[in-house]
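Take a protein:
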Amino acid sequence: MLAFAMAVALALGAAPAKSTKTQLKIEVKPSSAIVYVDGQRKGTGAKPILITVTPGTHNIRVVHNKDQTSEMVRVKSGQVLTWGWTFEDDRADKKAAKEKAAVEGAKAENKPKGPPPEPEFTDPDLPK
């Protein structure tokens, strides 16, 4: 009877194993970018995406307009892997280059044609 009571006490006293989730946390910019994990659409960059996955290798692909990126990631059991990507807007660079070219073109148009004029020298000792 004592053995049975001790077995019950041990069984009741043992804490249940803690469940640990294997997850991917994905943050992308801009908000209109579309996120795919293992070929399945999971959301957009409007807010962070948190998904439970199996341990192992997963393919993350992000598409924005005509641009995209993809990466294979390995997630260990019980790990929460954070992955992020930001698409750069190269339109600002193109606009700045265009404005610079326009300014340089305007300067070139305003330059006088031919050699620069000779400076006029006067000698204070010579009569006028």
